[in-house]
């Protein structure tokens, strides 16, 4: 169960090698989390992520899970909930893709969309139903500021996150009053493996900062969390920039 | 989403929280009107079990059951028999202490133990084994229970008498041994419905403890409001209010006409939307300063209504809304005699931290109570409200827990919404016996609450 501050005792991370996911898990283990399920494609990285959390004192299990294999989601995820309550599900998987390359390689672009959107839709619906049956729980969805307005430079990734963001918001409204809390997290540019080698824009943030914001959001039962907080104002302004101007902006 | 779930699962699903309004969860709420309906509701509990709920005054998650059933017991509200000569009452578990006062004060009987609110049910009072300002004289509520009827997981109704294991597990057992259906209570005789109250100020914590130690035994009721924002030399400055039921002889002529009339005041409700952080350090500091200054240095024999003396907050319906949407945590702990240094240290830390708490009370407990999970032990108890929005509050309270547990103390489960489960065993040494008995009378775990899940009770 979550305590009065929204700190969960058990956590399922979808995308078990995600740096944001693991930073969040570390933070929550320091509070009340004792059980962590790391779901992801079986790999040495997943096992070492699990080991790193075990050293913090949590009981960690890895679960083979592939976002693209939506047909298997129901069975894999459904089973996790029968072993006991899961107080929080963190949807942390996602791929950035390579915009320049993917524009010329439609199957690669489709894979980005299927991972970030279709895979997430499937996993979220299954988890939402299970959480609803247990009458409580938080569903934390890692969206991105890139989904707020698609940019020339990464609209394949941006549009997939836009879809995910809209879906998660709708899901949050559908689940209102069921005891399940849906929180959409919109980080700006986060310094991780996924973004290694890219130029860092202003307001660049870290997995640790995102984890801190998630913990605060859980306590406040927030529905939307921007990281850093100033991103909210920036994106509100950008959202209203006229198209002819927006397309010329060096974003 | 509704289409994905079986239709009956959501029909009467309601979001439930405790009085602190934190950690809401959803349960099916049934409101049985008879013992048979209670039994049917218990048998109909699904895999996620059920828990009885009274008037929802437990601050935390004790009367919540996510995804399962919650039995709203307030429909069982009959007072069966009253023996006006001996003061024995047989009533349903859903009867509130308010109702008992309404009915019994005119007959010259008062509830044996009254907490800070009279809007609690008899069942809840037993389940949490509540205490009041008279704990140093009268002990906890269940000391005055002569017997109770308990519906256990097998559907049987057992009449449970004091001195038995099941009784000691049920009193303070947070509803986890079964559903209390009715109880026989021994009331306390009074001549009037007024209190004769002595008020005095204590300049600091040591002064307060000295006064409580020296003169508490002279009073049936005793409590101190403590200013937890005062620091330095004024650390722990307090206002003591101690009193007795006023004898008929001291009443003025006007009141003598109806000495046992139960009167309560009522103010407007707290608004449903209060900005978060309204009660911050500045506002609460100001309030505390005024409250302390306005209290007389020493005043004796003031006549007060029962509601003014015992239940000042009941005058404001929904007062729990004043902390805003995020709700609040009530932290109450006890440390034994000889652990005064721990108490001082905790008070100092709270003051240094600047917890904006205007409802902080300190009380000196008498002998402990037989309930296995009963909270009181001989020593000092401090209770305070803190809005959850205060930054770093979660880890701060964890640190206080460590200190309290290290000193052999404990926190009160009826108020808890955040204790680290690992500390429960240290705080409640009779926990293994409780768990063993629970495994015996409720092997399938029919009775469950969010509290029991959170603390692995």
UniProtKB/TrEMBL annotation, chain A:
The keyword Oxidoreductase applies. It comes from the Bacteria. InterPro entries: NAD(P)-bd_dom_sf, Sc_DH/Rdtase_CS, SDR_fam. SUPFAM superfamilies: NAD(P)-binding Rossmann-fold domains. It holds the Pfam family adh_short. Keywords: Oxidoreductase. One of its GO terms (molecular function) is oxidoreductase activity. Belongs to the short-chain dehydrogenases/reductases (SDR) family. This is Short-chain dehydrogenase. It comes from Streptomyces purpureus. The lineage of its organism: Bacteria, Bacillati, Actinomycetota, Actinomycetes, Kitasatosporales.
From TrEMBL, chain B:
It holds the Pfam family ALO. Keywords: Oxidoreductase. It comes from the Bacteria. Gene3D superfamilies: 3.30.465.10, Vanillyl-alcohol Oxidase, Chain A, domain 4. One of its GO terms (molecular function) is FAD binding. Residues 22-190 form the FAD-binding PCMH-type domain. This is Oxidoreductase. It comes from Streptomyces purpureus.
